[in-house]
Amino acid sequence: MIESTTDASSAAASGISKCPTGIFGFDEITGGGLPRGRPTLLAGAAGCGKTLLSMEFIVRGARDFGEHGVFMSFEESEQELITNVRSLGFDLATLVTTQRVALDAVRIERSEIEETGDYDLEGLFIRLGSAIDAVGARRVALDGVDALFASLPSEAILRGELRRLFRWLKAREVTAIITGERGGGTLTRHGLEEYVSDCVIFLDHRISNQVATRRLRIIKYRGSRHGTNEYPILIDAQGFGVLPISSAGLDHRVSRDCLSTGIDGLDALLGRRGYYKGSSVLVSGTAGAGKSSLAAAFADSVCHRGGRCLYWSSEESPDQIARNMASIGFDLEQHFTSGRLYCHAVRPTLYGLEDHLARLHRIVGALKPDAVILDPISSFTAVGNLAEVRIMLTRVIDFLKSAGITAFFTGLTQGSEPVHLERTEECVSSLIDTWLLLRMTDVAGTRKRLLHILKSRGMAHSHQVHQLLLDDCGVSVVAAASNPGEPR
Amino acid sequence: MTVTRFPASDTHATDGNPLPSDSGYGVAALPDGPDLGYVLTLYVASLTPRSSAAIQSVRDVCDKHLKGRYSLEVVDIYEQPSLAKREQILAAPTLIKHLPLPLRRLIGDMADEHRVLLGLDLRTRDASQNPSA
Predict the structure, then answer these.
(1) pLDDT (0 to 100) of residue B64
(2) Which residue intervals of chain A bear CATH 3.40.50.300?
(3) pLDDT tens digits, A133-161
(4) Where is this region: Disordered (chain B) (predicted)?
(5) B81 touching chain A per CB within 8 A
């Protein structure tokens, strides 16, 4: 799995001990995790992932950090909890039988209850206390605690008891997550935020362009610095993930090494070496000009040299790519089989932009590729406006750069006039280190593919227009003038 | 404090009783009213004044309205925390009427006799007349 990053230095600087969650991206934005030994309030509307986040905190704590936990649910039965997280690969049942996690499902039927005078919630305290003692818990999650307000009479008593509960949790020095339903004017419906003062996290769910994106925001984190942005979150087969918006500081180390483009002729044009490792490459051009072929050549070259490559395809399935590229001499199938080439083929409209970005983070984190190919970036305009796409691509570039991964984008240009060609729709060209332009031209009744290097930072590159040749032996680049009438 | 046993009818000793039959807290037999048995368990959290008041109130109400046809057990959930989970106890004190059905949970110190009677279904919500008096 993806390892957690505990920001020990910032925790020490802020004087607060942090409890790592192991949740993808979460520990980064909180500077190390939740405040240790204190309660954290997790507020949000239904369906935002509150239960999942708190459950992951407990499961990962028990499984990855050796901290046993108690999960008390006010909404779901124990069996439901176990079943729900099984699809995420969490074997909660085993954690329960091995006494590493204790579950307690609180069920209250309002219709059964008759209030006959003053009461307290000592029963809840006893249950929680005995569960904590039974497994030696260091972590506690109380999921949906505000359901009590619907089930038990006398709000005044409940408020007093919840205040006492949160104090009690603090006194027991367990790291706790308490989830609460989002309210109208207040953060939670029953104002739980009044009682939990150390850390408040808000989950949100919004729809734009008919695509839903969940977001996370840290509203308060006493005694610690924290990001104040809204962070996109995703919930997928590996559980919960928070996408840190990279600080985009331009302080990443750059490499002097190069990766071959996979085409000798093109390497020669780029000072005989190829693309700089960790740089960003854009190949733009009109339809059919050979953009994907350059991408395939690069992927093939990376894999042949023992590297790994992620091919993010928005238009073609892996099978289709393999078939088409076999026709110009690239056997991508062998790289799929060897696992060096991983193809993630998904329509952009399936998720929101941030969701895509989060998925990219996740896959890159797991795969640790040397190169990432996005083919094409133009299709993302289907899910967001240009400004949003530009922000997303900027984040992709920053993220890959800081990880030292070579990024290779293809972009479709509309129209063939120079004014159209030297401008990408996504307006990311200024962030690109190496920009290749492909276009078609008619010479004596034959369509030819022409290749220009518009820029290549830090390289003595060619300024001449060259011809790109695609045939069943591969891709080659030759000087445009020297081959007046050669193949295809 | 330990579980306290109070006189009770003999009919519902096993089927409605939350305690295992071998727990040693079996329900004693009483001569009369086997068909009208009330099986009650009062869960308290240690012997606080509130617990004592609840125990006294429940006994008073039962002796007054259910004389000879109830069984009442008092359980300290501090001594048996697993029962708190099994019986879904949150509030203390909680009086559970296991029988006759439907199951009811009376929470609080039982100071409000009218509500205790309501909860035990000894008085209906609209009628002031006590059916079992």
Answers:
(1) 85
(2) 8-242, 258-479
(3) 999 989 999 998 888 888 888 888 888 88
(4) 1-22
(5) yes
Extended beta strands in A116-173, E state: 139-143
Half-sphere exposure of A167 (CA within 13 A, CB side): 7
Chain A residues with CB inside 8 Å of B52's CB?
none
Report the predicted TM-score, pTM, of the whole model to 2 decimal places. 0.69
DSSP state of B92: B
B10 within 8 A of B34, measured Cβ to Cβ: yes
CATH architecture of residue range(s) A8-242: 3-Layer(aba) Sandwich (3.40)
pLDDT band for position B115 (50/70/90)?
A: confident
pLDDT digit string, tens, across residues A73-108 = 988 888 888 888 888 888 888 888 898 999 998 888
The one-letter code for the residue type at A471 is D
Using CB atoms, which residue from B50, B54, B94 is nearest to A123? B94
The domain covering B4-119 belongs, at the CATH homologous superfamily level, to Glutaredoxin (3.40.30.10)
Strand order in A199-208's β-sheet? A101-105, A69-73, A139-143, A175-181, A39-44, A199-208, A211-221, A230-236, A239-242
Q: Cα separation of A228 and A344, whole Å? A: 31
Chain-chain contact of B107 with A122 (C-beta, under 8 angstroms)? no
Whether B109 and chain A come into contact, CB under 8 Å, resolves to: yes
pLDDT tens-digit map of A335-345: 888 888 998 88
Residue A340 CB contacts under 8 Å (≥ 6 apart), including other chains: A302, A303, A306, A307, A308, A309
> Domains of chain B: which residue ranges?
4-119
CB-nearest to A119 from B88, B103, B108 is B108
Residues in chain B within 8 Å Cβ distance of A130: 81-82, 84-85
CB contact under 8 A, A114 and B107: yes
B-chain CB neighbours of A165 within 8 Å are none
- pLDDT band of residue A273 (cuts 50, 70, 90) is confident
Distance from CA of B38 to the nearest CA of A (A): 16
B11 pLDDT above the threshold of 60: no
Q: Which CATH architecture group holds A258-479?
A: 3-Layer(aba) Sandwich (3.40)
Report CA dihedral (A394, A399, A401, A403) to the nearest 10 degrees. Answer: 180
